[in-house]
Amino acid sequence: MANEKALEAVGTTLTIGALTVCKVSIGSIGFDGGDAIDNTCLTNTAYVTKQPQALVEVPDFTFTCDYHPGDLAATKTEINKNQLLTLTFGTVGHIDFWGFLKAMEPKEAARGEAWRATGTIVVTNLKGSAVETAPTWT
Predict the structure, then answer these.
(1) String of DSSP letters for 81-104
(2) Are 120 and 69 in contact (CB under 8 A)?
């Protein structure tokens, strides 16, 4: 896949249980190695020495969506429900990962604007049976 470009995000979807809001923008899975571990000791004479952490975090990400206020009760049932989520990149492929909808925060609405909300996804990497499970790309 070297030098291949995805030209537009059209067709991108995020499946969160039965939540059926219209996503307008979606964050994605990323990786964070965390802060370096300082392992400098008194025998060092010229440099501070560091080492990387052994574990990698998949940070939270957000999405923005249009929603109908009547759907808020159904949305509440997805909050804090650890489940298999799918982020689909049009026809390119998809990532399956374990996580939950942490928040769904409606924004102010005004004349000439859609009802919009921001959602926050927490990637748990923890299958329902308490087994560490990494995101998978297919």
Answers:
(1) --EEEEEEETTTEEEEEEEEEEEE
(2) no
- Tokens of residue 65, six digits: 């969506």
Tell me the C-alpha distance between 125 and 95, whole Å. Answer: 12
pLDDT above 70 covers a percentage of the chain that reads: 95
- Contact (Cβ atoms closer than 8 angstroms) between residue 67 and residue 115: yes
Mean pLDDT of 132-137: 96
Element of type H or E holding 23: strand 22-26
User: What pLDDT score does 26 carry?
Assistant: 94
Amino acid in the structure at residue 4: E
- Tell me how far CA of residue 11 lies from CA of 14, 23, 31, 137, in angstroms: 10, 10, 23, 17
pLDDT of residue 11: 84
Q: Is the pLDDT of residue 20 over 60?
A: yes
pLDDT digits (tens, 9 = 90+) for 60-79: 999 999 988 888 888 999 99
Second-level CATH architecture of 12-32+48-137:
Beta Barrel (2.40)
